[in-house]
């Protein structure tokens, strides 16, 4: 295990396209790339990017469709290669943020551009539809 970690770190340092997985979901390749972020009422506005695209998913652990959508969102974030931010908000734990965006049904997804909400959708989104929505904004 230690040898594999050392080899991965050496390959990453040499500029190969390999990403080295670090703790807390941070991936390194020259510059840092964040995985899906989990926001709360206090951190939401700092996690929504002031520049660029941020996709925010409102969910709850008891919600079956939310659990179905989770792997789609993870794949979407992975394929985006750091070109946008993906943030999840648990509606049960963060009522202020959920209320601010009038979340009545989940899963709900809001696409932000430069910190401003542009588009929202309630329900499951297939990967291709999510990609098209982001590309159109």
Automatic annotation (TrEMBL):
SUPFAM superfamilies: Thioredoxin-like (SSF52833)
Thioredoxin domain ranges (all copies): 1-137
Pfam families recorded: Thioredoxin (PF00085)
Alphabetized UniProt keyword annotations: Disulfide bond, Electron transport, Redox-active center, Transport
InterPro entries cross-referenced by the UniProt entry: Thioredoxin, Thioredoxin-like_sf, Thioredoxin_CS, Thioredoxin_domain
Gene3D superfamilies registered for this protein in UniProt: Glutaredoxin
PANTHER family recorded: GEO12009P1
Recorded family membership: Belongs to the thioredoxin family.
NCBIfam families: thioredoxin (TIGR01068)
Name listed for the protein in its UniProt record: Thioredoxin
Lineage: Bacteria, Bacillati, Bacillota, Bacilli, Bacillales
Name of the gene this protein is made from: trxA
